[in-house]
Amino acid sequence: MRIIMLGAPGAGKGTQAKKIAAKYSIPHISTGDIFRANIKNGTELGKKAKTYMDQGLLVPDELVVDLVVDRVNQDDCANGYVLDGFPRTIPQAEALDKALMEMGQSIDYAINVEVPDENIVQRMSGRRACVNCGATYHIVYAPTKKENVCDTCEGELILRDDDKPETVQKRLNVYHEQTQPLIDYYTEKNKLVEVDGTIDIEKVFDAIVKILGE
Ligand code: ADP
Ligand code: ADP
Ligand code: ZN
């Protein structure tokens, strides 16, 4: 099963992608996580990506496409994967389709998690990420057992720099300009399915499982 998660920043793509990956035993591939790991490790890619991410801008397509194409070619992707945060532009989607076609494959579903802009800033200001393992929480909607301590690894929780309200608004604008056109792109290819992302995390997941099958 090859799945793409679409939706605004903070819509819940990562939250649902992790649950999909666990239920269907496929890898969760998050380009945001890959970039943050590169930044943490001080790689050249990380240094380049950071200058864009800090401004709420997209990293240029040429720094993203090869990385994802290489990743989906790895052995653990043989039975599928869930892509979270990629593609984010039409050229990225076209490059992915081309690479998949060469492999004799295609995407099964692009799942659009719908959340209106009004809800997003609140979502993002409450998002907390573990500095150690990258797990994501929300101070109200997905709290940890102990305040400010990761449930899985006891790492410290932080508010991502790019989740501060001034950057979130910028990212939303970028989303509407560059990423939202993918909804039409996948609709035309008959791959788009939509779920309401404003309801409980578990209810969103139930809706996704209904689409993907038990
Ligand atoms: P969100 O949780 O808002 O969906 P991500 O963790 O997916 O954010 O991405 C964080 C940042 O990493 C983005 O704002 C962007 O700068 C960069 N990024 C991630 N994926 C891509 C991509 N496919 N193309 C370009 N930039 C990307
Ligand atoms: P994305 O990957 O699309 O940027 P995340 O999965 O990181 O989004 O979710 C953004 C924030 O909203 C996180 O703090 C997460 O815990 C919270 N969240 C995710 N889904 C829901 C939901 N259905 N209801 C309330 N909060 C949610
Ligand atoms: Zn952790």
Describe the protein in words.
By secondary structure, this protein is of the alpha/beta class. It has a single domain, classed as P-loop containing nucleotide triphosphate hydrolases (Rossmann fold, 3-Layer(aba) Sandwich), CATH 3.40.50.300. A hairpin with a 5-residue loop joins strand 5 and strand 6. Helix 1 crosses helix 9, helix 2 crosses helix 3 and helix 6 crosses helix 7. It binds adenosine-5'-diphosphate (2 copies) and zinc ion (ZN). One adenosine-5'-diphosphate (ADP) binds next to helix 1, helix 2 and helix 3.
Main attributes?
214 residues; alpha/beta; Rossmann fold; five-stranded parallel β-sheet; three-stranded antiparallel β-sheet; 8 strands; 48% helix; binds adenosine-5'-diphosphate; binds zinc ion
Instruction: Give the helix tally.
Output: 9
* Termini separation: 12 Å
| Portion in beta strands | 5-15%
Q: How many domains in all? A: 1
Radius of gyration: 16 Å
Name the helicity range.
Answer: 40-55%
Query: Which molecules other than protein and nucleic acid are bound?
Result: adenosine-5'-diphosphate, zinc ion
* Structural class by helix and strand composition: alpha/beta
Shape field:
globular
Nutshell version of this structure?
Helix content is 48%, strand content 15%.
Topology, element by element:
Layout: E1 2-6, H1 13-24, E2 28-30, H2 31-40, H3 44-53, H4 61-72, E3 81-84, H5 90-102, E4 109-114, H6 117-126, E5 127-130, E6 136-138, E7 157-158, H7 165-179, H8 181-188, E8 192-196, H9 201-212
Parallel strand pairs: 1-3, 1-4, 2-3, 4-8
Antiparallel strand pairs: 5-6, 5-7
The chain binds adenosine-5'-diphosphate (2 copies) and zinc ion.
